[in-house]
Design a protein that fits this description.
Chain lengths: ~300, ~325
């Protein structure tokens, strides 16, 4: 039983790594635009399809990962440039912007259904047999996923903490008006953040597809709710919180699967999401100003 | 030809009942609810097990109840059950949540319910669901004329739903509900209980969802977790947005366009061999695009809701009078 528990913890770490990339992207985007991007799940799917399609041209994992990021960034940029910004300029309420992201998600998902069809596509990366690393049993692919998450989270941390752009981004998240008065081009910051978050989302889709091996156009949608759970549990706008939320939800889901029917494991995340929204809407790390990127 | 017209009118009538229920939540109450199909499913299942005989399944799978009751009792149970689930969710969610958080919470709830219905074999027979649900009054008609009879049943149900809702819309409660939607603080200041008003609307919408779900299950004669999908609620939303949120006639117009004209229009597109998912994909695509286009260029919809000042007002609005007076002075 204890062995099972440590193995489940290992699976949980891999799930948490995938989650963390998507969650940090979501929380960054949410805090800057004040609208949760419901299309993020489908942008993940698009990234996965981007990597899948690239494998027929170049058989190189790095190139496929970059393709996923480019697809994600391009879609996210498009969403912001052609939909969210024009709506925001017309004074649309945040709820309407939220509806716009869902409608866009619907369009995106059905476009992928039209292109790739409804049967699962195979996306197999070469894998090594599991290695014993400490108490954990991880395959080479698992290690690559964890390393990808660590590198991308570290890059977010460094950019937010030490660059001028990171500072501007935090200022816009705190108050777009105050940021504008201080001479920050808030529109540009939002564009760049959306594009960057899109690239990370595409990357998250790529590692998710690599882990599950076969997927359809619905890959990202249910996963999005798990991502939202991690973001809300960690506290919207908190990069540290997003990492903790991803770890809690990811490990919690895999460990819970030992005790309940595995098909319920995503429900564990949804229950955590609902409970957090109802009883502690600011998440486990309450921030002084909600929905502002804090470090 | 007659059969063809009956088939798409049947789909339209079912969709209209579902959209009118959702319109109570979104159009009248302003709550962006994404758990609507959970209530539809609860109505379909509970109505189904009310009219079905006792489950004879073996191996742990079963459906609960199995009361072998008539169609009308099934309708009532379906509405009551869906209203009860709406009351449970609404009582918790509407207390504090609005906007995007309400949407996220309800979609999470809907996915949890879907998981339970799929996994609990002894509740509604898990993934296989209910089947051979008896069609209402089928024994009195032959197979050829029955589709028309069923359509008439649906149209009667739709007419009742429409009339009851129209009366409620014009009632003091309906007026209060719109006041709450426009400005919760102002409505509260005038003595409206915001929470109770919104919760009543949520439960009312749920009851209609339950009725629509049961009729849908009657139409399909079976109901299982593959029959509905949480995110499909967006097709209903696209009909409501296009027609005009809160205006019932607008909603019916939206249903005609989104649930009848779009699917019937795509029917004539050339078939692509080996791609059975193309038409559902195009329908979803069109629904999503319609929402984006309508929200961008005509957010009030084709037939917008009449604002209160348009009704029975003969004198000039107060604000104009005030501005005019200060201009004169």
């Amino acid at each position: 039983m204890l062995l099972n528990l440590t193995h489940a913890f290992g699976f949980g770490l891999v799930t948490a790594s995938i989650l963390a990339i998507a969650t940090v992207a979501l929380t960054m985007q949410y805090s800057v635009t004040n609208v949760p991007n419901f299309a993020q799940g489908d942008i993940m799917t698009a990234g996965a399809f981007g990597a899948y399609t690239t494998q027929f041209v170049v058989n190189n994992v790095i190139v496929q990962a970059v393709a996923a990021m480019v697809v994600g960034a391009a879609i996210s940029f498009f969403l912001n440039w052609f939909l969210l910004q024009p709506f925001a300029r017309r004074g649309a309420k945040p709820l309407i912007l939220f509806v716009v992201t869902i409608a866009f998600a619907f369009v995106l998902e059905n476009t992928m259904l039209a292109i790739y069809g409804g049967s699962p596509v195979l996306y197999k990366l070469g894998d090594s047999p599991p290695n014993q690393i400490g108490p954990l049993l991880l395959t080479g692919r698992d290690l690559v996923i964890i390393a990808t998450a660590l590198v991308s989270l570290a890059s977010v941390y460094i950019v937010l903490k030490y660059t001028k752009f990171g500072k501007a981004q935090r200022a816009v998240a705190d108050s777009p008006d105050l940021a504008r008065v201080s001479g920050i081009d808030a529109g540009r910051v939002v564009h760049l953040t959306m594009t960057w978050a899109g690239a990370m989302t595409g990357l998250a889709g790529f590692v998710l597809a690599a882990q599950v091996g076969a997927f359809t156009h619905t890959l990202g949608f249910t996963f999005l709710l798990v991502v939202l759970a991690a973001a809300v549990v960690g506290g919207i706008g908190q990069v540290n919180g997003a990492m903790i939320g991803a770890l809690l939800i990811g490990v919690g889901m895999e460990v819970a699967a030992l005790y309940i029917a595995p098909d319920y494991k995503q429900s564990v995340a949804f229950v955590a999401l609902v409970i957090t929204i109802l009883f502690r809407p600011d998440g486990i790390i309450p921030s002084p100003s909600r929905r502002a990127v804090q470090l | 030809m007659i059969q063809y017209i009956i088939s798409f009118l049947t789909i339209g009538a079912l969709g209209a009942i579902l959209c009118l229920g959702l319109n109570v939540r979104w159009g009248w109450s302003g709550d962006f609810d994404l758990a609507y199909y959970a209530m539809v499913a609860v109505g379909a299942y509970m109505g189904g097990v009310t009219v079905l005989p006792k489950s004879q399944l073996t191996g742990g799978a079963a459906w609960i109840l199995g009361l072998n009751q008539s169609f009308l009792v099934g309708c009532l149970v379906a509405m009551a059950a869906a209203a009860f689930v709406s009351l449970l969710l609404g009582a918790v969610a509407l207390r504090r949540l609005r906007g995007d958080y309400l949407g996220i919470t309800t979609v999470a709830f809907s996915l949890i319910i879907t998981a339970v219905f799929t996994q609990q074999l002894n509740l509604f027979n898990g993934f296989n669901g209910l089947y051979s649900i008896p069609s209402p009054f089928q024994d009195q008609f032959d197979a050829f004329s029955y589709p028309l009879v069923f359509l008439i049943i649906l149209l009667v149900a739709l007419a009742i739903v429409y009339a009851v809702l129209e009366l409620l819309y014009r009632s003091p409660w309906g007026l209060g509900l719109r006041a709450v939607r426009e400005d919760e603080i102002a409505a509260a200041a005038f003595g409206r209980n915001v929470y109770v008003t919104k919760l009543t609307a949520y439960v009312l919408g749920g009851a209609i969802a339950g009725l629509g779900g049961f009729l849908f299950a009657n139409y399909l004669t079976s109901w299982n977790p593959a029959s509905w999908n949480t995110i499909e609620v967006f097709i209903l939303y696209s009909a409501i947005f296009l027609g005009g949120s809160a205006n019932q006639r607008g909603v019916l117009l939206g249903v005609v366009v989104v649930l009848i004209m779009v699917p019937e229009g795509t029917r004539y597109l050339p078939n692509v061999p080996g791609h059975p998912d193309l038409f559902p994909a195009i329908r979803g695509l069109v629904s999503g695009l319609l929402i984006l286009i309508v929200l961008r260029f005509r957010p009030q919809g084709l037939l917008p809701e009449k604002r209160p000042r348009d009704l029975r007002r003969k004198h000039r609005p107060v604000a104009t009078v005030a501005v005019g007076a200060s201009g004169d002075g």
